[in-house]
Amino acid sequence: MEVGKCLKRVDAFDKVTGRAKYTDDMCPKHAYVTRILHSTIAHGRVLSIDTSEAEKIEGVVKVLTCFDVPDIPFPTAGHPWTTVPAHQDVADRKLLNEHVRHYGDEVAAVVAEDYVAADRAIRALKVEYEEYPFVIDPIEAAKEGAPVIHPERQDNNILAHSDIRIGNYQEAIKEPGLIKVEGWYYTPTVQHAHIENHICYAYQEQGGRMTVVTSTQIPHIVRRVVAQALGWSWGKVRIIKPYVGGGFGNKQDALYEPLCAWLSLQVGGHPVKLDVSREETFVNNRVRHAMPCHIISWVRPDGTFAARKFELWSDQGAYASHGHSVAGKALGSYPQIYPCDNIEADAWTVYTNKPTAGAMRAYGMPQATFHNECHVEEIVTKLNLDPVEFRRKNSMPVGYYDDFSKNELYHDSFNDCLDKAIELIDYDRKFELYKNQTGPVRRGIGTSLFWYNTAVWPISIETSSCRMIMNQDGSIQLMTGETEIGQGCDTVFAQMAADTVGLKVEDVHVVTNQDTDVTPYGAGAYASRQTYVGGFAIKQTGELLKEKILGHAHTLTRMPVDILDIVEGNIVRKTDNRVLMSLGELATKILYDFELSEHMAAESTYSVKSNAYSFGVSIAEVEVDIPLCKVELLNIVNVHDCGILINPPLAEAQVHGGMSMGIGFGLYEELLVDKKTGRVLNDNLLDYKLCTTMDHPDLMVDFAENPEPTSPFGTKALGEPPACSPAPAIRNAILHATGVAINSLPINPHKLFAAFTEAGLFETL
Amino acid sequence: MYDINHIYEAKSVEDAVRLRMEQPQATIIAGGSDLLISIRAGDLAGCDLISIYMIDELRGVSLDDDGTIRIGSLTSFAALTKDDIIQKHVPVLGEAADKVGGPQIRNIGTIGGNTCNGVTSADTASTLMAYDAIIELTGSEGKRLVPIEEFYLGAKRVDLRPDEIQSAILIRPESYQGYEGYYYKYAMRGAMDIATSGCSVNVKLSEDKKTIVDARICYGVAGPIPMRTRSAEQAVKGLPVSKETVEAFAAGALQDVNPRTSWRATKEFRLHIQGELARRCLTESINRAGGVWS
Question: Do A119 and B3 touch (CB under 8 A)?
Answer without folding.
Answer: yes
